[in-house]
Design a protein that fits this description.
The complex is a heterodimer of chains A (about 400) and B (about 280).
Chain A lengths: L1 H9 L6 H12 L6 H12 L6 H12 L11 H5 L2 H12 L5 H6 L2 H14 L41 H7 L13 H9 L4 E10 L1 H10 L8 E7 L3 E6 L9 H14 L3 E6 L7 E2 L7 E2 L1 H7 L4 E5 L6 H5 L15 H11 L3 E5 L6 H4 L1 H9 L2 E3 L2 H21 L2
Parallel strand pairs in A: 3-4, 3-7, 7-8, 8-9
Antiparallel strand pairs in A: 1-2, 5-6
Helix pairs in contact in A: 2-3, 10-12, 10-18
Chain B lengths: L12 H13 L3 E5 L5 H12 L2 E6 L7 H4 E3 L1 H10 L15 E3 L1 H7 L4 E6 L6 H13 L1 E4 L4 E4 L5 E6 L7 H5 L2 E5 L4 H11 L5 H16 L8 H14 L13 H4 L3 H7 L9
Helix pairs in contact in B: 8-9
The chains are: A alpha/beta (about 400), B alpha/beta (about 280).
């Protein structure tokens, strides 16, 4: 069982000792009488997020049914044609326990049930590389003697279809953490972006202040009201929409764009090409510039999200007059401008459509920009991290007030 | 104590098992899943089937967590101390007269075991969830004003629902059993509908479900769920409509699609797309 927990951990499902204790406790008190219940129990105890369901099912399958985690699960048809089953069947017939007529008459369920019974009764019956239920030395299920009469029902007679069937369906694939973004899961991740500040009319009773004033007032009640803390996210999104480097990511960025616009009334969008040199633009065609000073002044009360691949020639970032625009008059190198932006917006994050794993290989400029901005990739996990980062950073500045 | 579904609620066997494990392990059960898949209803049905009383808390974003346990009415006490409590029977010197218990408090203090429902917990802040952690874990809370610890006499059966409007915090999830209710496939849906409309003709139900699942696949902003399907069938039965029609002719489309944009799209009126 400990092995199973480590298998879960290796697969990236966060587990704690506490879960293991709970799991043991539940099994001790007889809550996993058959494999289906074991499966449900383990899922309840170990899986806390729907993103992990698919991984869990894979691990469970590979651990308890010996399926290759890379493959889909063994199917019953495959089992019936597998070597251990045939060996068993031949043994049975040779020993006279089953007559050839029986084999014809019994349906597959019955046959399989008998097969499992025998396998379970044979302690430690390892069949080569196959890890059947009950053949694992470390599992409490391996020893039928410990669970007299119960055994493990691996058959489809369970009230709710077998665990295998449930697993085989792989219902949770679309929730996997690595999945690309869809409108729905993105919306959920973004919705947790928060910025609590006092707003609205003064309707909330300030108890402490009321009591203090009342006491000072010689017991004449004086009610003091304050303003409620509300979630008011102000957001500026800067998008790299120029050049060919962003082209493959247009659908992804568009999903993000539509969702941000739908969720936050106070979101502004600006555009830039590759790197920022003292100016960003209000329109996608980049003709309507936003004055740099105006942008800088938004600073402390606003969250900044930059979307771009951060992939450019080092010169564009580091050199004076580095802009791709040949007629540039900007002497300051791009990285200086980025630093300035970062300082003006203490609560900011850079979202990169390139997967995190590829950042190191893709270009050196990504590493350089990562030193300036906190960077995440455009996967569900990345966006969640980004939102958490913004919330944590933002708390400090919200507290300071405006 | 086993829960096995009721005459009004179709209990998927897997879910039934999960409910019973959670009850036996005395762990809060967190139900997530699409809106309209019967998460909240489940709590009511458990209470009904087991003959227990319900305590329900419909969460709001302004909740801080403590008010679910108790509220100390300072203003009333101040007022009473200034103007006298009259013939209300309250004693200004007795703080207990000014404590009002919320759903959690009532569930803990009651003489019988109760079902405690925390509905749509995701509406609350993560701070609120953190405040509730230990309360739910140890089934006790402290009344800060008098440093009095309230411990549950009978651990309630705790059900928590979430529509995943916001992410729940990890420590909170750790303390719950979590179950994602998947959308029921057609064969289960048939049974669900039959529970609510026992005399529905086979052919009618069939065509309804075909239209329904087709609508769901069209990627609407808010795809219709079980609750909408039941409303839809109910309204058609009331109006005596024989068949659900197809395509744009679906009657009472408003019961299935809730967002204006979805309805417009369904009727083929396209908004000029942006970006």
């Amino acid at each position: 069982m400990v092995g199973f927990v480590y298998a879960l951990m290796d697969a990236g499902i966060p587990v704690s000792v506490r879960y293991l204790l709970e799991f043991t406790h539940a099994i001790r008190s007889g809550m996993a009488r058959d494999l289906d219940q074991l499966f449900l129990l383990a899922r309840l105890v170990f899986v806390k997020r729907v993103e992990h369901c698919d991984t869990f099912e894979q691990v469970f399958a590979s651990y308890f049914f010996g399926a290759d985690p890379a493959q889909a699960l063994i199917r019953w048809e495959d089992l019936l044609s597998s070597k251990p089953f045939h060996e068993w069947l031949r043994d049975q017939v040779e020993q006279g326990k089953l007559s050839p007529e029986d084999v014809q008459e019994l349906d597959t369920d019955e046959l399989l049930a008998r097969f499992w019974e025998t396998v379970l009764a044979q302690e430690g019956a390892h069949h080569g590389g196959n890890r059947w239920v009950g053949t694992r030395g470390g599992s409490p299920y391996g020893h039928a003697a410990r669970h007299p009469g119960g055994g493990i029902r691996v058959q489809g007679k369970g009230i709710h279809g077998t665990a295998q069937k449930v697993i085989g369906a792989r219902r949770f694939v679309s929730y996997s953490d690595h999945s690309t973004l869809s409108a729905e899961n993105l919306r959920q991740a973004l919705q947790s972006l928060r910025s609590l500040r006092p707003s609205g009319p003064e309707t909330e009773l300030d108890l402490d202040e009321t009591i203090a004033r009342t006491a000072k007032n010689g017991g004449e009640i004086e009610l003091v009201f304050g303003r409620e803390l509300r979630n008011r996210v102000k957001l500026i999104v800067l998008m790299d929409n120029g050049g060919y480097s962003m082209t493959p990511y247009i659908p992804l960025v568009r999903t993000l764009f539509n969702n941000i616009r739908g969720l936050f009334a106070d979101a502004k969008f600006c555009y830039f090409h590759n790197c920022i040199y003292g100016v960003v633009f209000r329109d996608p065609a980049r003709t309507d510039p936003v004055p740099w000073e105006k942008l800088m002044n938004e600073g402390h009360a606003t969250r900044l999200i930059i979307v771009g691949d951060a992939n450019m020639a080092p010169a564009e970032l580091m050199a004076c007059y580095g802009s791709l625009d040949l007629f540039t008059a900007q002497r300051k190198p791009g990285v200086e401008w980025l630093r300035e932006l970062r300082n003006a917006f203490p609560v900011s994050v850079w979202l990169n459509p390139i997967e995190k794993a590829r950042w190191g290989r893709e270009s050196t400029s990504i590493q350089l920009i990562r030193r300036v901005f906190h960077m995440e990739d455009l996967t569900l996990a990345g966006i969640k991290n980004a939102v958490t980062h913004l919330n944590l950073q933002g708390q400090v500045y919200d507290r300071l007030g405006n | 104590m086993r829960f096995a579904g009721t005459d009004r609620y179709y209990l998927n066997a897997e879910l039934g098992e999960i409910v019973n494990i959670a009850i036996a392990m005395e762990k809060p059960l967190l139900l997530t899943g699409e809106a309209g898949t019967g998460k909240t209803q489940l709590a009511f049905e458990i209470a009904r089937a087991l003959g227990l009383k319900m305590e329900e808390a419909r969460c709001k974003s302004t909740f801080k967590g403590e008010e679910l346990c108790y509220v100390y009415d300072t203003v009333l006490r101040l007022n009473d101390s200034r103007f006298g409590s009259g013939d209300t029977g309250r004693d200004v010197n007795n703080i207990w007269d000014y404590l009002r218990f919320g759903p959690i408090g009532r569930a803990f203090l009651s003489e019988d075991r109760r079902v405690l429902l925390l509905d749509e917990i995701d509406k609350t802040d993560s701070d609120t969830q953190d405040n509730l952690l230990d309360v739910l874990e140890e089934r006790s809370f402290v009344i800060r004003e008098i440093n009095h610890k309230v411990t549950a006499l009978h651990p309630p059966i705790i059900l928590i629902t979430s529509n995943a409007k916001r992410e729940l915090s990890d420590p909170f999830l750790r303390r719950c059993f979590c179950h994602y209710i998947p959308f029921p496939p057609p064969d289960e849906m048939v049974q669900i509908v039959r529970l609510h409309f026992p005399d529905i003709p086979e052919a009618f139900l069939e065509t309804c479900l075909v239209s329904f699942y087709r609508l769901r696949e069209q990627g609407f902003e808010k795809p219709p769920a079980t609750a909408e399907l039941l409303d839809w069938i109910g309204s058609m039965r009331k109006m005596g409509i024989r068949g659900p029609g197809a395509g744009r002719e679906i009657p009472h489309i408003g019961t299935l699609l809730k967002r204006t944009q979805d309805i417009l799209r369904h009727k083929g009126i396209r908004k000029p797309s942006s970006l």
